[in-house]
Write a structure and sequence with these properties.
Layout (H helix, E strand, L loop, with lengths): L8 E12 L2 E13 L4 E5 L6 H8 L8 E10 L2 E2 L5 H7 L4 E4 L3 H4 L6 H12 L4 H14 L5 H4 L9 H13 L5 E5 L7 H18 L2 E6 L2 H7 L2 E6 L2 E7 H6 L4 H8 L2 H4 L7 H7 L28 H5 L5 E2 L6 E2 L10
Parallel strand pairs: 3-8, 3-9, 6-7, 7-8
Antiparallel strand pairs: 1-2, 1-4, 4-5, 9-10, 10-12, 11-12
Bound molecules: adenosine-5'-diphosphate and magnesium ion.
Length: about 350
């Protein structure tokens, strides 16, 4: 990012932990990143790597207990969200930063119509009449591609398809024109065609509204298509980050490399052309994300890494520039990744 554009969001050394019977575990462990105005930043990693905890920390929605944001800072236009009162934070949520979750059914209230819920979201943050809020709601539903908004405004969540419910969630998230939209696996629960439609919709709305987006996914294909900058998370740590073209063009962490090899669309560039053959051969990274309660002493990826040497187990590598000023990786053998 050019130095002349100050970031919209600046996260530094964020640590979020959960109390367990074995002591506190750090689900997010020293995470730092920036999101520029209008920029789309992707966060990718397998399940349990700390993606959602990162997102929820930004909104201070970590369930407490057992969770706590232990340290770090989260600055929105220079204002540290971790220092705000709960009341001030409520103004930030929805107004400045909105979030779309994976499963809209759990975020929509089944006993109210979708229209009523969007109206309430608008009234909560803006000084407009109920009538105006209602008009805006129909306009929003139209904007997110809900068919017959004048009728569907009165539908209950269960009367809509999964894709339509997700559109409603997006309408609600956009009701107050947030500066930042966090989308946490917004399409994971949907079938493939609908997934693409929802991602296209978010992309199109971003173009129109100019908001920044933090797009969380376990799918590097989605990262490749929809984001400019990527953060790869593993066991609570950022293991690689940088401009998407650079990171996917030349991954410098074996974990990123392994994730790429398991995505058909990305692997296809190098692998055999025949789709069946490609799918049959598609490797996944062997092994599992380590239990946060029993982390290895050195590199957290060491047990699954093909490039592992003794030095990797002695000390955890730092996140350092790898070959360019913008790409960072946490690997002492970064020069050999993919060789
Ligand atoms: N409510 C919770 N209570 C205890 N531990 C939690 C809770 N939520 C998350 N964690 C811990 O944080 C880790 C990361 O979770 P999460 O951020 O949801 O992963 P993902 O990358 O799949 O979104 C989990 O593996 C778990 O150890
Ligand atoms: Mg998650």
């Amino acid at each position: 990012m050019a130095l002349s554009t100050p970031p919209l969001l600046r996260v530094r050394d964020l640590v979020t932990s959960f109390r367990t019977e074995h002591g506190a575990v750090r689900a997010v462990d020293g995470v730092s990143f920036d999101i520029g105005p209008g920029q789309t930043v992707g966060v990718v990693g397998e399940s349990g790597c700390g993606k959602s905890v990162t997102a929820l920390s930004l909104l201070r929605l970590i369930p407490s207990p057992p969770g706590t944001i232990e340290s770090g800072s989260i600055e929105l236009r220079g204002m540290d969200l971790l220092r705000l009162t709960e009341r001030e934070m409520r103004d930030v949520r929805g107004n400045e930063i909105s979030m779309v979750f994976q499963e809209p059914m759990t975020s929509l209230n089944p006993v109210y119509t979708v229209g009523a819920q969007i109206v309430e979201a608008i009234l909560l943050h803006q000084k407009v009449s109920r009538r105006e809020a209602y008009d805006r709601t129909r306009e929003l539903l139209r904007h997110v591609g809900i068919s017959s908004p004048d009728t569907n405004v009165d539908a209950y969540p269960h009367q809509l398809s999964g894709g339509m419910r997700q559109r409603v969630m997006i309408a609600m998230a956009l009701a107050c024109r947030p500066a930042l939209l966090i989308a946490d696996e917004p399409t994971t629960a949907l079938d493939v065609t609908i997934q693409a439609q929802i991602l296209e919709l978010i992309h199109q709305l971003q173009g129109e509204l100019g908001m920044s987006i933090l797009l969380i996914t376990h799918d590097l294909g989605v990262i490749a298509e929809y984001t400019e900058h990527v953060i790869v998370m593993y066991a609570g740590r950022i293991v690689e980050s940088g401009p998407v073209r650079q990171v996917l063009g030349r991954p410098r962490h074996p974990y990123t490399h392994g994730l790429m090899a398991s995505v058909p669309r990305l692997a296809a560039r190098k692998g055999p052309r025949d789709k069946q053959a490609r799918l049959a051969r598609l490797p996944t990274i062997e092994g599992m994300v380590p239990d946060l309660r029993h982390l290895p002493s050195g590199c957290r990826f060491a047990d699954r890494c093909k490039l592992v040497i003794d030095a990797c187990r002695e000390k955890e590598p730092e996140l350092l520039p790898v070959g360019s000023e913008e790409q960072f990786a946490r690997c002492i053998r970064w020069q050999e990744v993919g060789a």
